[in-house]
Amino acid sequence: MSGYSIEERAAPYSLEYRLFLKNSNGEYISPFHDIPMYADKNVFHMVVEVPRWTNAKMEIATKDPLNPIKQDVKKGKLRYIANVFPHKGYIWNYGAIPQTWEDPGHKDQHTGCCGDNDPIDICEIGSKICSRGEVIKVKVLGILAMIDEGETDWKVIAINVDDPDAASYNNIDDVRKLKPGYLEATVEWFRKYKVPDGKPENSFAFNSEFKDKDFAVDIIKSTHDHWKALVEKKTDGGGINCMNLTVENSPFKCSVESAKAIVDTMPPPCESACVIPTDVDKWFYYQNN
Question: Are 19 and 275 in contact (CB under 8 A)?
């Protein structure tokens, strides 16, 4: 896991649940701010928020100190994504690229819409089902420009560098050739996943077409620039929490002890009483049938 480890507090699928990340020294860090965007030359880090085929909408808590992963809440209830026929849950490992930020005050030149105030999203298409909180290294292949309720919400397409077939994937056309129908399914999934909640279908720039690797990397770099301005307090982040341990020139930089004190205020780690995924699937079924 690229030298990173996790610590879960409270039971998964509860309002109190938080997943904190640690570095190789066992120190608590922010997955938003302290994990480098680049893992290597032309290789990016990805923080996995939602493993493939699961429904619980887990995400980096951008407004919480140290930005742990937690389950999204709407109207006081934990959020689960409905199954989009014929798919079960998310159809990729879904997560974010650290040290990126889609600035809600910046109007994107390609979409004409401002950013969604989150790290840039990424869909990993390899064969392995990753774990929540896992930090993996990925090759970027392309990008989709989704418009979500009037906001720019880029979706990067990538593959784990450790995937057995990673060498065969170098651009978005390779996905189209080697996984026929996957890109079309991705557009359809993002178009319809909010419809069961009574919301309209999402739309896309570029006539719903994916842009290539070079275009994707340029977009990622621009969101990194916006993140840098955010964490150095050169732009107003509103409620974004920029507490970090490692970012030079950041006024939000804190000590290892301060980070540990944050985690110490959380409920104790979950043990045998945790809800298992099968129970969550049952809960989701009975809530929606």
Answer: no
In 3D space, the residue among 122, 18, 32, 20 whose CA is nearest the CA of residue 71 turns out to be: 18
Contacts of residue 63, defined as CB under 8 A and 6 or more positions apart, other chains included, come to 239, 240, 241
What pairs with residue 253 in β-bridges?
244
Contact of 241 with 118, CB cutoff 8 Å? no
- E-strand spans in 2-42? 5-9, 18-22, 28-29, 38-40
pLDDT band at 271 (very low <50, low <70, confident <90, very high): low
| Residue of 97, 168, 171 lying closest to 127 (CA atoms) | 168
List Cβ neighbours of 181 (8 Å cut-off, separation of 6 or more).
none
Write out the two tokens for 234.
């050169």
The pLDDT-based confidence of 143 (bands split at 50, 70, 90) is very high
Rounded CA-CA distance 153/175 in Å is 21
Half-sphere exposure of residue 177: CA atoms within 13 angstroms, side-chain side = 8
Per-residue pLDDT, averaged over 206-211, amounts to 97
User: Do residues 217 and 122 touch, judged by C-beta distance below 8 A?
Assistant: no
**In whole angstroms, how large is the CA radius of gyration of the chain?**
18
- Count Cβ atoms within 10 A of the Cβ of residue 190 and give its class: 0-12 exposed, 13-18 middle, 19 or more buried: buried
In 118-154, which positions are buried (b, 16+ CB within 10 angstroms) versus exposed (e)? bbbbbbbbbeeebebbbbbbbbbbbbbbbbbeebbbb
Predicted model pTM:
0.93
Q: In the numeric block, which tokens belong to residue 123?
A: 């869909």
Instruction: Tell me whether residue 273 is exposed, middle or buried, using C-beta atoms within 10 angstroms of its C-beta: 0 to 12, 13 to 18, 19 or more.
Output: exposed
